[in-house]
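Input sequence (316 aa), recorded before submission:
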Amino acid sequence: MGSKARKVAIVGVGHVGASCAYSLINQSICDEIVLIDRTPQRAHAQALDLSHCMDFTYTRTKIFAGTYADCADADIAVLCAGTYPKPGGTRLDMADIAFAIYQPIIPSLIASGFNGILVTAANPVDVVTYIVWKLSGLPRQRVIGTGTSIDSSRLKTLLSEYLPVDPRSVSGYVLGEHGESQFAAWSHVTVGSKPILDILAQHPQRFSQLNLDDIEKKTRNAGWEILQHKGSTHYGIANAIAHIIRSILNDDFNITAVSAVLEGEYGERNVCAGVPAILTRQGIAELVELNLTPTEQARFAYSCQVIRSTAERLAL
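Predicted structure, token format:
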């Protein structure tokens, strides 16, 4: 990371990219943001609109529309360029489109002299993260996907409505694909440090309406529900991206579920999947390997194979 001013480049400034910039500005996470889009006029308009926030924020963030040449001194580049799945499809159906989008983007980004950390947010995010890692040539620690960060947040939110507690008092992760094969690692979900499985066993009547299979299904389908009724999901994922960026720039050593390149962790290789990771100024400092139950380990292996088979179809 070469610059003293904390600089973030956002590639693709549709709903997700623009919402990400809005979150960064309102949370005063960085000093400078450059917006890059295949339609320069849209990037300019988004930058102009976002610049009008400054009178109402705690700090001033410089924001402007630019090109890949402006990424040379960026600490982080966020990749939001992409599309939404068709009704009845899955995120994995977009893999070919994503590959076509990022084949020219990544070489242009690297050619600028960019030497920071890549954060991918485009779907199918696990496959895109793997594509970006392969095309960029960067160490795996510096290529991070949003992965199951948003799914883990959705899980905590849903649980908090039944318990009821603040979602931030719930700890736990959704693992694997940000998609249909994801699953909640219930053996590691706690509420105020108490395992959720113990809570349900000790209070079966009090929490009789809390069905873990139903919660997991609602977590998996949350994005589709939003997409169906308003056409896009962007606020939640934008804050997830902002959280990842803040954790990196502040050297927080925060543990977040992200899509990471696996090289033996959880017994998996040649795949990106959602797992807890320690985020620092250098990217991923370490992947946290949870002691999964045999059932959870089998579900994780299946999810990784779903992701891997899509990447292999793209000849990656």
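Checked by second reader. The chain has a mean pLDDT of 95.
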